[in-house]
Amino acid sequence: MNKKGLLWVGLGVVGGAIAIFFTGQAVASQMAAKKVDQLVADAAEFVDVDYQKVQASLLGQGTKVKNVVISPVGSEDQYKVDEIVLYQYDEKDTVPTHLKMAVNGMHLAVADMGANAAVFKELGYDKEIAMNFSTDYQYKAEDGLIQVKEFKLGADRVGDLAVDFQLANVDLSQEAVAAMPMSLLSMTFQNASITYRDDSFLEKMFEQAAAAKKVSVAEFKKEAIASLKQDPDMIKALSEEQRQEIEKFINSPEKFAISMSPDQPVPFTSLMGIANNPSAVTELLSLKFQAN
Fold first, then answer.
1. pTM, whole model, 2 decimals?
2. Cα-based torsion angle of the residue sequence 20, 21, 26, 28 in order, rounded to the nearest 10 degrees
3. Average pLDDT in the 38-66 region?
């Protein structure tokens, strides 16, 4: 076969592969739409959900539901969402075992925030705030383990808060759920971390608070650090190293991370016994605070 013939064969193979891919995408999207319709029907007792388009990916990018409107049942409130992406959802015996999803662009009107509306307007958020949420959760019933690899909530021009944690001795069977909250007492805490990244929100808060006291931002921060050193509860709960990290964050509120990594799993009953003792909680969970 000459070069021209090979070229046409090659183009035909590529064209066929593209056609198969897009046909597969269309079929996957149709199947995904049926699944989304079922999930919407299952949630109908709690929320009304309307959407315009479902798109499934064959490349591991999840099922995307576009232009969503969510309305809690019995409420006139409506929440518009640009996109909901479902990467993975599995369940066993009606218990969710794996959920990985993201909500991108959930629009919240500042005027509808009730008592908080005035505060946000003063901070410069005059129309709406676009929220984003993502989570990656797994439950391994055979090991009695819950692992939340990610639980992240954020907003444009505000910041984002991310949490991950792991719990053991967890039983989510129907019998255990029916016995809650007593059945929760057997759980143990293994580890967790909390990370916050600021996107100008806290600096605006400092500016507003300083203006209310008619002092400069630098003076207000200095007063806040001084009160931190004098607060008896903070003195008991924080080590000198932790206090210095908090002071660093007050001076430059960009990011902080809190880690909890006890040497041994901590029973919930032990935590309940020292809930009113911050210093004991800090020591038991090996709590550490790091700024920026």
1. 0.76
2. 110
3. 61
